[in-house]
Amino acid sequence: MADKREYRMEELARLAGITVRTLRFYRERKLIPPPRREGRIAWYDDQHLARLRTIGALLDRGHTLSGIAELAEAFDHGRDVGDLLGLGAPTEETPVRLTPEELADHFAGEVTPENLAAALELGYLGTDGEEIVHISRRLLEVSSELVREGIPLAEVLAAGRRVREHADALAGLFAELVLRHASEEDLPRLRPLARSVVEAELSLAMDRRLREGA
User: Fold this and answer.
1) How confident is the model over 137-150, as pLDDT tens digits?
2) What is the value of pTM for the model shown?
3) Are 135 and 85 in contact (CB under 8 A)?
4) Which residues pair with 205 in a beta bridge?
């Protein structure tokens, strides 16, 4: 295992492409975590370098320092990836690792502290060091597509919360049905049938809604 790299302030600033004065300003604004102290010497590591590069990327995308500071605080206090995934990774969904700037690219202009806090609370997002983990590639792609279609991310997340409630109820209904006639060991084998029923019923419901609106 490679030794952890550490940098003096001047070297870190040079690697990040900023001045020492700017680095001090970011530290005072708490945009980066405090360095490790050894006497009067401050030591920074690769996580500090990654955060500085993220700040630069977000600034290039038009974010303000105040907004970046709020985002940094939300990341630092969000649930970590262990809490997000619980005892293990999802059995059918694929988690996605993102940098903060990649997340910003998915939802241009919509990654506000309020939306980030809502996504963390919903369990869509967790943090792993300087990376963000989205619990489902499919949910990430669908939600970003809805935002590109002009639906505000806040409303997408609010709808996601309501869908979660209905999905929990549907899962409970199917599990209860199976357990009345089979065993808990049969649930993983039969879960695709539950998904097919829900997809078919949703498709039929959309047909009814479209006919009513015509």
Assistant:
1) 999 999 999 999 99
2) 0.72
3) yes
4) none
